[in-house]
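S.,

Sequence below, as promised.
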Amino acid sequence: MSSAEWQVMRIIWSLGQVTTTELISYLNKKESWRPSTIKTLVMRLERKGYLTDDGVSRGRKFKALVPEDSAMLQAGQDLFAAMCAMKNGMVLTDLLQKVDLSKDDIDKMIAVLQKKSVDAPNMVACNCLPGRKGNC
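The prediction came back faster than expected:
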């Protein structure tokens, strides 16, 4: 999803279902998008299988077909799959320094890291060039 599509989906996930008019109203508070732009984003999200509508011709209500958690986890997996595996730690460390986290989130991460540390290799293999050994 594009960042604009994410903005649309975040509103729909928050509200459960939303009409085009409501969506335009919420997005106009954040962005200076024209209604036609928002409608185009909704149509794209429908084609991609993220949204469905109630089938009413006027005042259609849209709801998500994909749960927010699933979409977020998939986006994270896609991001890291596109990067060099050797740089995952650097990116995660930078993110940890920059994003707001609850104490509970931090405790969960510490537990996961402690468990992973037991079997972690000294160096993660590069996944950039198939068949090549060592550094990128």
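The chain has six helices and three strands.

Coffee later?
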